[in-house]
């Protein structure tokens, strides 16, 4: 099948890809079971149980075999089914059906492989069907020319979650850790759940708004943030394309209100889950309108206008959660049911690939070729 054509239901390719995907996750999951100290996240291990992960592993392998067989039946060829079958068989040989969770010793460092596996599984389960059956751009394929680059961003940001977490929390601790916030934390944690959750959403989005807007209005920062805007194929993976400098600064800013206000673990976990899903949704290639909700929460249409490549629409829709924050500061733009004609960066072309895009902002400005920096950007 040509990489430039959309996947079609009933031809065996989709079931073949599902089989391969689940088998690869099973193989990675085996590594987590064998090396939990180095490959799993302590905070995340508190949420799931070893029994649930054993059941998920079993279900994943069985489902992989099922979709491999379905692929052969639908396509009447082994082309799409045999890779998934082979990988699932390898997972069984390596112990996927017999792995057992165990107590995990403390470790000074770890990768977030468990977080990557489970988040990737959840995002694929939600957004691949959404984009397949309700696409905004019918011509856009799942496997566009830069999907591997975006997937690499996704993998890196998840595997190095400990590193990103430590760096982004440091400013809040450094500047506010001395203030003695226990009484404030007690008061905030005593608020009704809905009120506390709204407060978490609003304060983090307000801090994110100004951090985001600052990255757009300073050329020295836009050169990093523009990497995120360089994608011309908006889909569920596009939001992952973010330079690490951008990640450090923006997440550090949004963590400040979380740290200062000291929300309960329940509010914090709901906030994290919402952000993890919503941040993917607003970049997704889906035409779903969301009705009146689009005036309460940011939607794909709303955020796609923020990514519009036409310079006359620059400088709008910086909010991540609440459109009314853009209304407060005069940057709101949502023209009925209209969508932008295209996305990307009008004033520059960017190199392909994760490594080249990581290096690019340190060596070149997207606004010129001789590194002469201006004070402000119109972006």
Please give a structural write-up.
The structure is a single chain. By secondary structure, this protein is an all-alpha fold. It folds into 2 domains: 13-142, no CATH class; 161-363, no CATH class. The protein contains 16 helices and no strands. The protein has helices at 13-34, 36-39, 42-45, 50-75, 82-93, 113-133, 147-159, 161-176, 182-189, 193-217, 219-229, 244-261, 265-281, 300-306, 323-328, 354-363. The chain is globular, with a radius of gyration of 22 Å. The two termini are 39 Å apart. Mean pLDDT is 89; it is low at 369-377.
Report a brief summary of the structure.
The protein is mostly helical and 379 residues long.
The level of helicity is 55-70%
User: How is the biggest beta sheet arranged?
Assistant: none
**DSSP summary: helix tally:** 16
What is the H-and-E element order? HHHHHHHHHHHHHHHH
Q: How many domains make up the coordinates?
A: 2
Structural class: mainly alpha
Oligomer: single chain
Beta-strand fraction estimate: under 5%
Count of distinct strands: 0
Overall shape: globular
Q: What is the rounded distance between the termini?
A: 39 Å
Rg (C-alpha, Å) = 22 Å
Integer average pLDDT:
89
Topology:
Elements: H1 13-34, H2 36-39, H3 42-45, H4 50-75, H5 82-93, H6 113-133, H7 147-159, H8 161-176, H9 182-189, H10 193-217, H11 219-229, H12 244-261, H13 265-281, H14 300-306, H15 323-328, H16 354-363
Helix pairs in contact: 1-4, 1-5, 1-6, 4-5, 8-12, 10-11, 10-12, 10-13
